[in-house]
Design a protein that fits this description.
Elements lengths: L2 E4 L4 H12 L4 E4 L16 H16 L3 E10 L20 H11 L9 E11 L5 E12 L15 E3 L4 E2 L5 H7 L1 H16 L1
Parallel strand pairs: 1-2, 1-3
Antiparallel strand pairs: 3-4, 4-5, 5-6, 6-7
Length: 197
């Protein structure tokens, strides 16, 4: 396997995958590299279901190995929200800042010890032959009351890692690529990938 398609139009995610795959000398393409890819309706109720929906659709279209991820933020005090709606929590067409603002407003008055949260990443791998694998990775932390840091994307500026005393947006990319929910999921997927390579 010399090339893999990552089923995402998120440039930030694509870069993270490029970095992870570079050590295996595998070329990474994302949906940003192809024209006229129809939007895939992600109507699953879990991260795993959504990742599989995307991976199956793109593998069928390109007849190549595809990895799709569905990831997001689960906040304990919000009963797991935003969950699978993380990217569009503040409404369709809204941006990261709007999503962060909504989460912070919903957590107003909630004390630090009750602001536990985790980033979740489900990775689905689908081959042209129809073989499927799904793994889940997590990264535990807390939600702050304000944004700190300028690295990363999404909810990174409010996601605090107590053991580092920094937010996900305050740590360098190489460190994030070791600690993140995506790195955790990818580590679990490596055995499956090695068999394909």
């Amino acid at each position: 396997m010399k090339e893999v398609i990552i089923a995402t139009k998120n440039a930030g995610k694509a870069k993270e995958f490029e970095h992870i795959f570079s050590q295996y000398h595998i070329t990474v393409k994302s949906l940003l590299d192809f024209e006229e890819i129809e939007d895939i309706v992600e109507d699953g109720e879990t991260f795993e279901e959504n990742a599989l929906i995307k991976a199956r659709a793109i593998a069928k279209q390109f007849n190549q190995v595809v990895i799709a991820d569905d990831s997001g933020l689960e906040v304990d005090a919000l009963h797991g929200r935003p969950g699978v709606y993380s990217a569009r929590y503040a409404g369709e067409g809204r941006d990261d800042q709007a999503n962060i603002k909504k989460v912070l407003s919903e957590l107003e008055g909630i004390p630090t010890e009750q602001r536990g949260a985790r980033f979740v990443c489900a990775l689905a791998l689908v081959t042209p032959e129809g073989e499927e694998s799904v793994v889940r990775g997590t990264c535990e932390g807390q939600i702050l009351t304000e944004c700190l840091g300028s690295e990363g994307f999404g909810y990174d500026p409010i996601f605090y890692l107590p053991e580092l005393e920094k937010t996900m947006a305050q740590i360098p990319k190489h460190q994030k690529n070791v600690l993140s929910h995506r790195a955790d999921a990818f580590a679990k997927l490596q055995t499956i990938l090695m068999n394909l390579v």
